[in-house]
Design goal:
Oligomer: heterodimer
Low-confidence stretches of chain B: none
Shape of chain B: globular
Radius of gyration of chain A: 13 Å
Order of helices and strands of chain B: EEEEEEEEEEE
Number of strands of chain B: 11
Strand content of chain A: over 45%
Structural class of chain A: mainly beta
Strand content of chain B: over 45%
Mean pLDDT of chain B: 91
Largest sheet of chain B: 6 strands, mixed
Shape of chain A: globular
Helix content of chain A: under 10%
């Protein structure tokens, strides 16, 4: 069965800490995405990548960076965590050159920044 | 740039009643449109997608959606609600071009009462 795995289900960090959220997919997908999900705001795109070492800013990239050194792994980095980054983070992947393909989602990481 | 608006953050129906979840989109090119569902404590999964082949799209679990270009709408329906349909539903739009990503609406929570 295809899988997108996020390394942590729950994470608690302190303000100012550097935070790494890891995502691995086993489907050899070209495209990977990071969204954050907040009540009443739906899913908002942070960053995405359509190839190794490539990255594109989404709608809300401020305060985040990403890394994609290998095709299967896409990391989201919070350089200095702040309380307004408390959220559910969802990783997704898809195949193909166009975005009419189905997204496969991980189960999410609930990050709390205290 | 594309965008999607879901009308109604919360919809409540009785078991056996019609389900109607509304979605309107904005896109500068013919769009690809999707409905995803998120059951409690789970990741998102694809319900159905429109990719210009047919305006009436059938998905999983008895759901369907109709693409209406004149109304820029892609409303999700199910003739008879079941308790297991209680979840959050997200409409999403894509322009299908390489280097772009799926943009989601804010979501609609469906409650089903017995």
């Amino acid at each position: 069965d295809v899988k997108v795995t996020q390394s942590s289900r729950y994470l608690v960090k302190r303000t100012g800490e550097k935070v790494f959220l890891e995502c691995v997919q086993d489907m050899d997908h070209e495209n990977m995405f990071w969204y954050r999900q907040d009540p009443g705001l739906g899913l908002r795109l942070i960053y995405f990548s359509y190839d190794v070492k490539m990255k594109e800013k989404g709608d809300i990239p401020e305060g985040y960076s990403v890394s994609r050194e290998k095709k299967e792994r896409f990391s989201l980095i919070l350089e200095s965590a702040s309380t307004n980054q408390t959220s559910m983070y969802l990783c997704a992947s898809s195949t193909g050159q166009s975005t009419n393909e189905k997204l496969f989602f991980g189960s999410g990481t609930q990050l709390s920044v205290l | 740039a594309q965008s999607v608006t879901q009308l109604g953050s919360h919809v409540s129906v009785s078991e056996g009643a019609l389900v109607l979840l509304r979605c309107n989109y904005s896109s500068s090119v013919p769009p690809y449109l999707f409905w995803y569902v998120q059951y409690p404590n789970q990741g998102l999964q694809l319900l159905l997608k429109y990719t210009s082949a047919a305006t009436l799209v059938k998905g999983i679990n008895g759901f369907e959606a109709e693409f209406k270009k004149s109304e820029t709408s892609f409303h999700l329906t199910k003739p008879s609600a079941h308790m297991s349909d209680a979840a959050e539903y997200f409409c999403a739009v894509s322009e299908g071009q390489a280097g772009t990503a799926l943009i989601f609406g804010k979501g609609t929570t469906l409650s089903v009462s017995s």
